[in-house]
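Translate sequence into structure tokens.
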Amino acid sequence: MEKLLRIHFILRNDVTNFVSSLPQRIRRIKTTTHKYNEQQRDKIRGRIDWQKTFKERCRSNDTLSPYYVDLVERKYSIPENIVLNELLKTMYSITSNDVYRAIKNDYPWLKGWTKGNLLAMLKGVYQRNIYLRRIREEGEVILTERMISNTLQSRNTLYSEAAKLMSDYKKLMNYDLAPSEAQELLKNTFIRPGRVKVLFELFWIFKVIMAMTHDKKAVTFNIIDGNNNIVAEWEDEYYRYRIYHDSTGVFNFREKWENIKIPEKDGYLKRESLVVKEWQKASKKFFDLQRGDVLWGGRPDIVLEKYHKGQKRPVQVFLGEVKYTESVYYASKGLKELLEYMALIRSSDNYFEDDANAVFSSDKIKGWLFLDNVDVVRQHSQNVSVIKIGDGNIEGLIKSACSN
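Result follows.
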């Protein structure tokens, strides 16, 4: 939510307007001067205070005593500049981190930044402006509410607008939104899956998390950005958990013909292996395509890994297959896929359950089939459970399936 609010902030028209006019307005930045007196011997920098110099030499009777020089120090870290610098630092952070992938992929909802050259403007001002650099060189100063409120009264619109935007940003981060602004935020920046079935899969993932966690505040949620499919992680007294969506997790769900022992006697496997070999050669001849030899491969909708604390190898895994359907036949197909995942799941080069006869009774692997409103005669059999949307106390059923 915090990331969503930060993105919402830079999409505002007053923010983009502020950045677009920044290069011209930043030239009139304010400074203060501080006059002081300094003793100098070898190299004289500044205006010599002859009166003080002669007076000190007469007092000490030393004609070689240092000169007293008047110097003027220009300070940039005034409250107005601190507010401005903090605002630009915030904008720069959001555009460099929170929306980096969106900018890279040229998402249309960021066209106000990408098409108007605003990113280059902001980067140029923040990184290369000599005044802002000197503000940062003078040391870190904590921005206070008093600084913001005083800067709001500035006659220089560059500063008063910066203070207004900084004040709005702080309110956003405190979830202080008017109802109309909250509606606008969700309307413009809420991210939804492109397909309903994906939303249905995520629904079940959150049901699993709610069933498996005692302290909801202990759950760490991750942004699913295409590179990372770990939805959430959490720990209890003895174990740590990691749940994935549409991912194989740390496991491997793939079978290759080269790893299968083909019987010498003629039969289905013998002939099927010949088909694959001939298909590979024919694809190269006819289409110049290099084909692999994967016999079976898949990716579960849900993978929940359970680890002993301090260990890297899972001690137990829960596999979930989700079918957004009211058809019992399609549900049965999903059950077959789930059973395949449970039987063929590999950890490194070995099957996770090395005893083939114990696959569907092993406590190391449990399977969930999550369905829409489908008629189900039985919900549990050995270590496989079928749970549907119309069931009461769904979280209780999931928890029960884990302990059975």
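Note: The chain is about 45% helix and 20% strand.
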